[in-house]
Amino acid sequence: MQDPTPTLAALPPGALSGVTVLDLSRVLAGPWCTQTLADLGANVIKVERPDSGDDTRAWGPPYLKTPGGEDSSEAAYFLGANRNKRSITVDIAHPEGQALIRRLVLQADVLVENFKVGDLARYGLDAQALLALKPGLVVCSITGFGQTGPYRDRAGYDYAIQGMGGLMSVTGERDDLPGGGPQKVGVAVADLFTGLYSTVAILAALRHRDLTGQGQVIDMALLDTQVAMLANLGSNYLCTGKAPGRMGNAHANIVPYQVFESSDGHLILAVGNDKQFAKFCEIAGHPEWATDPRFLRNADRVHHRAELVPLIAEVLRRQPRQHWLGQLEAAKVPCGAINNLDEVFADPQVQARGMTVPMAHPLSDRLQVVANPIKLSATPVQYRRPPPLLGQHTEELLSEAGLSPAEVQALRDQGVIG
């Protein structure tokens, strides 16, 4: 199928138009960072291994469906983190491949990589060597544990980082209840947060570069990010010396503030103050709860959680979810549905906000991507290119770098490019 990439010259410039990013990362944290930069208008060149490419190209099923309904070669995982990029295949273990990366660096503003600590130095492509080649370059290195410290040589994976960084100690049901024990979050939040923090760091470094001409090295670690994103729980521990435990879907300091079951599904009740509790009691048909000394104030409700929560659960179980949500929302009592993904993408608010985008793909006309949530008034996010096929833009990018067709063919004959 012909490449359906639209004519890009007609598109208005994005916020990061003119910024070129050389992306040597793979899997999720790095590609999430570079996809965000690409969505904002940066020219992102994704460097992949010949033959196999980014690991996530093979992380399926599910795969993108062809027009005939068959599985294509493109894993949904890869498609979720690599739009608006161009793919070039380069074997950096080959001296000619290393020379090619240096040539691309001369045209780049940013390089993002997530190799193990010291790996790129074996190829003469470490941060210091690249900064010597181009002093204005911003190099962002993303690893599990950072460039320093006793764990620097370890491989880092999101699941392990969620455990090591404390998140799983506060996620999941209490140990004394059925199903109790540590739980990971359902998506790779350590990877995703690290990708976003990396984006912020790159933008700050580009601002510094624009002011001074000086590039720099950004050292991002999944473990650092996971510790930072403990947020108020980390602050609570540092102030008290007491480690918080798992509360399941309940809240340590507010009652009722948890998941309850209705007659046809679950809902969230998130009462934030005593006035909201009184309104809830009216809706529940038990106004006397609001004047009961055990439940009068939030502190009382926290102390008598074991008595109040079963009473609420018994009432909410009697009616369907929408019965309660409609009344609670009308009374401005905080609440919410627990939607599966069918319901999420069918939700009128999600649709009104344009949170899915169709994109023409070389292998399918069925591609839908989750939209970028950033809404900019003057330089909106653009969906210029579908996630690339492996090496799809190799010849195009090498031509832009000044190589002749004969030089490109010579590199292909040597196995330097795919």
TrEMBL record:
Alphabetically ordered keywords of this record: Transferase
This protein's record includes keyword Transferase: yes
Keyword Phosphoprotein: no
UniProt superkingdom: Bacteria
InterPro entries registered for this protein in UniProt: CoA-transferase_III_domain (IPR050483), CoA-Trfase_fam_III (IPR003673), CoA-Trfase_III_dom3_sf (IPR044855), CoA-Trfase_III_dom_1_sf (IPR023606)
Record protein name field: CaiB/BaiF CoA-transferase family protein
Species per Swiss-Prot/TrEMBL record: Roseateles subflavus
